[in-house]
Prior knowledge:
By secondary structure, the protein is α+β, with helices and mostly antiparallel strands. The protein has two domains: about 5-40, no CATH class; about 45-180, no CATH class. It has two helices and nine strands. The chain has helices at about 5-20, 35-40; strands at about 45, 65, 75-80, 90-95, 110-125, 125-135, 145-150, 155-160, 165. Strands 1, 2, 3, 4, 5, 6, 7, 8 and 9 form a nine-stranded mixed beta sheet that branches. The longest helix is centred in the first third of the chain and has 17 residues, at about 5-20. The protein is globular.
Amino acid sequence: xxxxxxxxxxxxxxxxxxxxxxPRASSAFPAHSPKEARSSSRPELVAGKVxxxxxxxxxxxxxSTIYNGGDxxxxxxxxxxxxxxxxxxVGQGTAMYLGPNTTSVxxxxxxxxxxxxWDICTCNGRRAYRNxxxxxxQHGQSFDATTYINMCTGDYASGKSDATRKKVxxxxxxxxxxxx
Length: 180
């Protein structure tokens, strides 16, 4: 034990023996463990809610898989999230990529993909990220906050006016951008 720790321990023992109380929390003596601190904070954000049948990951915190429930290109797996709980969280995973000359999912390849969730709201009574988008940077794609799926409604925003938004039940986000 270091000399500093010995002195700190002696101060605690002296306070307890003299006054019957422990000193206030400090960096040497945190009030709560990190686990206790997390449990007392507000509920963890989730990824929207389930909005169609056969979906995975929606309505969950830090999902490792997101699946829209139909076409295999609407599935991202092995997601590792960064900054979950902040205004925008980014994940890295794998998904089926349909190249510009690919006409069928049979010819699609599983490739690294970037997933972004953002726009914190209340969804189905829970704190949630509202929007999701994924893209393949190695193919020249990048984050576009105007093209996404609303994870609370299933509506697809295509980067155009609100009149062009439509419900997507079993398709992947960025279908049009996948063919760049």
